[in-house]
Amino acid sequence: MSSLSFALRTHPGLKRPKNEDAVGHLLTPWGGVFIVADGMGGHRTGEVASRLAVETILEHLKEAEPSPKALLEAFERANARIYQEALRPENRGMGTTATCLLLDLPYALIAHVGDSRAYLLRGEELALLTQDHSWVAERVRQGLLTAEEARVHRWRNVITNALGSFPQARVDLLGLKLQPGDTLLLCTDGLSGVLEDRTLKEALRNFPPEEATRRLVELANEWGGPDNVSVAVVRPPQELPQGTRPYALPLEAAGGAPVRLHLGEEPEELPTQVLELKERPRVGWRDVLLILLWVVVVAYILLGYLRP
Ligand code: CA
Question: How far is the CA of 48 from the centre of ligand 1 (A)?
Answer without folding.
Answer: 14
